[in-house]
Amino acid sequence: xxxxxxxxxxxxxxxxxxxxxxxxxxxxxxxxxxxxxxxxxxxxxxxxxxxxxxxxxxxxxxxxxxxxxxxxxxxxxxxxxxxxxxxxxxxxxxxxxxxxxxxxxxxxxxxxxxxxxxxxxxxxxxxxxxxxxxxxxxxxxxxxxxxxxxxxxxxxxxxxxxxxxxxxxxxxxxxxxxxxxxxxxxxxxxxxxxxxxxxxxxxxxxxxxxxxxxxxxxxxxxxxxxxxxxxxxxxxxxxxxxxxxxxxxxxxxxxxxxxxxxxxxxxxxxxxxxxxxxxxxxxxxxxxxxxxxxxxxxxxxxxxxxxxxxxxxxxxxxxxxxxxxxxxxxxxxxxxxxxxxxxxxxxxxxxxxxxxxxxxxxxxxxxxxxxxxxxxxxxxxxxxxxxxxxxxxxxxxxxxxxxxxxxxxxxxxxxxxxxxxxxxxxxxxxxxxxxxxxxxxxxxxxxxxxxxxxxxxxxxxxxxxxxxxxxxxxxxxxxxxxxxxxxxxxxxxxxxxxxxxxxxxxxxxxxxxxxxxxxxxxxxxxxxxxxxxxxxxxxxxxxxxxxxxxxxxxxxxxxxxxxxxxxxxxxxxxxxxxxxxxxxxxxxxxxxxxxxxxxxxxxxxxxxxxxxxxxxxxxxxxx
Length: 623
Ligand code: ADP
What we know:
The protein is an alpha/beta fold. About 60% of the residues lie in helices and about 10% in strands.
């Protein structure tokens, strides 16, 4: 009934091949702890201090409970009751106990301050370190990773995962450790106060736990089936609203309303039943719980009456029991949150385990420490994108470019021109054949060094948030002010930068001044000039530039290319007539190669492309 074109639009499932989003398993607590400890490296002493203070603070809590019991006994004793249990127990004065309790509280609070602030500080440090480590790792992952991953998903997911881990480390981890220690300490205290009463508590645990788990499971199961019926009603709403035109044209409003009513009825009856059951289960749990408490109080009172326990001890016992029960409950609650944390940890670890590009492996050829001469040779290169292994993009691609030569790549959209430049920058490596640079396999050079020898002026220039000066210096971080200015002048960018009130200090990018396409192009050219590469790749801007800007950009480009090896991806043929050589690509193969005149005269594919472009300079590749 639903319109097929929109039916599955709102919630498309995550892509199967998605490198990070696809994996859903959770990390084990050991892996999560190892990650945390690893991130705390250098601060482990601080962690030990935090745990030590936490333990002392908990000891303070327990001592406080015992002291409160003493206070009860001392009060009773001052009323004339014998609480010495035949002289085996001496109780201090009320004032002394009061002072002792005050002292305990001060020490406990001091420890809490130290452990809490240390845990929070460590959590923040660990999260900051993880953020830095992940980002540093992410930018060094190979291009193939980014092509196989949905970047929007990845970044929002990562931010959410790290925020969750940060919350765990600054808060939950401490609560968790604290409650484990508290539970253990309180149980030990229970047995120290009265082993018999402690034994009764142990006896009550299985029935309380058993009834809670059994009821919880039943409530969950019954609620799930009711929830199922409710979701059936939302399916009807969605169906009817999507196809409201059909409902109206068939005059079926009453029919649909009836269908909906019966679905609601189907939901309502079991929902009411489940509500009654739920109340019943809660009462059952309370029945068992209170029976156990009454049993304890009864047994405790008999112990007091028999002179085996003082009233103060019993008070302390019950307080310790409350501490133990609260800690146990909190631990159970935290378990759910730890499961989510396990998922976040897994995704973070998976990402950290992705292999980085080996940026510094390989050697610089002797004698070429400073600069390549710029000879490029593609020998029978075959290539398919890892994300589309069924489609051959380059097939036996051959191209030899001499140092300083200017070669234009032309051909229809999808012929493989951009792919050739991606291989040149080694964003991908050929599947077969070889790419030689200065007569040596491109794989033998250190990647960072090799890319430092090349520059790209892209079609769509993206400026980073920052000043124009910073954006130009992107070509060579650390360049001096004079060098930046000289590059801007050479790139014909100076005349517009000069006119801006803040000149080179003008902020651009997302939150800054918007500058035009032609101006961006000139900034990109200035970047490339500053980099002074041996090999230059120009992805020509298409028709977005007006003729004034086009002339300025073209002049700047002419200044930039000089006598360096240049590969131009040409989208309009009339701009490449000056090239030393024009290489025509079709379906990943070179089909023609030569000067404009020679190719035109040969009356082949190039000529057909030129004729199709006509005088108006139409764009051949409609990218
Ligand atoms: P051109 O620059 O000549 O227009 P490209 O090199 O961009 O051609 O593309 C060649 C072929 O490779 C096209 O069919 C394109 O769809 C495909 N392609 C380009 N980039 C990718 C990529 N990152 N992942 C998968 N396929 C791609």
